[in-house]
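Progress against Task 2.4 (sequence-to-structure conversion) is shown through the following example record, which the project officer requested during the mid-term review.
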Amino acid sequence: EVQLQASGGGAVQAGGSLKLSCAASGFSFDDYGMGWFRQAPGKEREFVAAVTWSGGSTYYADPVKGRFTISRDNAKNTMSLQMSSLKHEDTAVYYCNARYGVRDYWGQGTLVTVSS
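C-alpha cells generated for the chain above:
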C-alpha cells in the first residue's frame, strides 16, 4: 500500500520557520520525483516545490523562492521542506506528492498556520 505521511505543520508567527517532513512507503521512492503542494482556504491547490529522483535538481514556485528549501533522503524514504521567513499568505494545508510517469500519489496534508 502506498503511503505518504506528511508531518511538521503547526502554528507559527510571521517571520518564523517550520520544517515539514514526508515519510514514504509502498513504492520505489528513489524512482519518483517528489514535491510539495499547498491549498489555502477557498483557493486551488498550487505547486510549492519539487525535487528530482536523485535530489540533483530542485524547483520552486516564485512566491517561495529564497525562503523554502526542499530536500530528500533516498536512504530513509523521506522528503523535507524547510520553510523560513514565513508569511501569512503561506497559510495552507501542505501536501506531499510522488510522481513517476502516470503514477501520481498524494499524502493527507499537514496544516500550516502563519499569524501576522
